[in-house]
Amino acid sequence: MRALLLLALLAVCGRSFGQAAPSLPAPANNLQGPWNERDLLRNSNAWNSAVNAHPDDAAARYQWYSNERQAALARGNGRIAAADAARLEEAAHDLERIAPGSVNAHLATYYQHFPEATAFSSLDAALALDRSAADLVVPRMTRALRQGDQAGLKLAAVELRDRELVARGLQLMAEDLLASVDRGGVLLLGGELDTYPAIAAQQRDGRRTDVLVVDARLLADAAYRERVWREAGATGTPPGTAQGVVNALPQATARPVHLGLSLPGELLAPWHDRSALTGLTLRAGGNGEPIAELATRWQRMHRTAEAGPLSWNYLVAGSVLLRHYRAVNDEAGMARTEQELRRLADRIGATNELYRLGVLPH
After folding, report:
1. What's the mean pLDDT in 145-162?
2. Which of 57, 198, 230, 305 could pair with 347 in a Cys bridge, judged by C-beta atoms 3.0 to 4.6 Å apart?
3. What CA–CA distance (Å, rounded) separates 317 from 118?
């Protein structure tokens, strides 16, 4: 499983960069894209030029912040590295200085402090000013999930989709993610790019409502930890940390527990050798891969290249299948899966990485 998880955490790199756009791009939205480095750099240059031309334009400065945050998510497989977080923190301070008490300033503070309680105080302040803002829909979903507000969660989830605030690729990925989970499972996810499209698929489309979707970032909150423990049907006292919950939940509940491949490495580490790949998730407990089950799910997957950094997680399932077909000398399976992997890898810029790791032959 260690080699498998290395694939899951591949860094997106080595792409060419474009020049600054001549005009301002559309406002950024973390669940819409763009995701490729060329477009992100072009947009960053455009918004940075707008900020330099109008230093007091809080809206332009927030769009630059949003684009930079999106670029950080793309680099980090849906998570933000410490160096990026420090740079974004400086941008959030600039927003507060230029437009103190504004929706944009409160929202930047929310993202910088998340998942601490102070983040939600900033979110409440932003909601008091303009509850209908598009940028507040995902934070509203997060707040409702944290509070156990099912009505609020459904309202925001439906709005997310009906206002077209989530990229089609993330919607398709969310369907594949839910389809990777056993009946009645608990699904632990690592961030907004997978958690909230999956919840929207449940709340708006009625997909896999038997699955309990958990935002692992919110497990830092005691009330949320306790509610997840109870809703998962777990016995005993819930542990006091997110790591403790991930370590203990599979043994404490009769429900199958699945771990999203975008979870931080430290949360996945205890399960490296005690989990089975079931698609875009790992089933905690046991070892090896249920090949027949994985092959069926692989063929049903959308395998979209338009899910930003999370599209790379499809390569994990395909690589495991290809390794199996080679081991049993299944020439038809090898040829088919290698072709499917090449097509996807070419589209997301992963071909050289698969060459380097020996997944694909030169």
Report:
1. 96
2. 305
3. 39
- Please state, in angstroms and rounded to a whole number, the distance separating the CA atoms of residues 63 and 65: 5
The torsion angles phi and psi of 30, rounded to 5 degrees, stand at -65, -20
Mean pLDDT, the chain, whole residue set: 88
DSSP result, 57-120: -HHHHHHHHHHHHHHHHHHTTTS--HHHHHHHHHHHHHHHHHSTT-HHHHHHHHHHHTTSHHHH
pTM for this model (two decimals): 0.88
The answer to whether the CB of 277 falls within 8 A of the CB of 143 is no
d(CA 126, CA 122) in angstroms, rounded, equals 6
Residues 6+ apart with CB under 8 A from 151: 144
Query: Which residue spans within the chain are E strands per DSSP?
Result: 186-189, 212-215, 257-260, 275-277, 281-284
Percent of the chain with pLDDT over 90: 67
Token couple for 269:
């580490």
Cis peptide before 238 (omega within 30 of 0): no
pLDDT band at 55 (very low <50, low <70, confident <90, very high): confident
Three-state SS sequence of 22-66: CCCCCCCECCCECCCHHHHHHHHHHHHHHHHHCCCCHHHHHHHHH
pLDDT in tens, 165-180: 998 999 999 999 999 9
Alpha carbon of 269 to those of 150, 182, 246, 257, 325: distances in Å? 32, 22, 10, 15, 27
**Arithmetic mean of pLDDT, 187-213:** 95
Question: CA angle 10-13-18, nearest 5°?
Answer: 150
Query: Cis link prior to 115 (omega < 30° from 0)?
Result: yes
- Both tokens of 243, joined, read 């790591």
Tokens of 63: 């769009």
Say how far apart CA 248 and CA 251 lie, in whole Å.
6
- The CA distance from 256 to 284, in Å, is 8
Going by pLDDT thresholds of 50, 70 and 90, the confidence category of residue 22 is very low
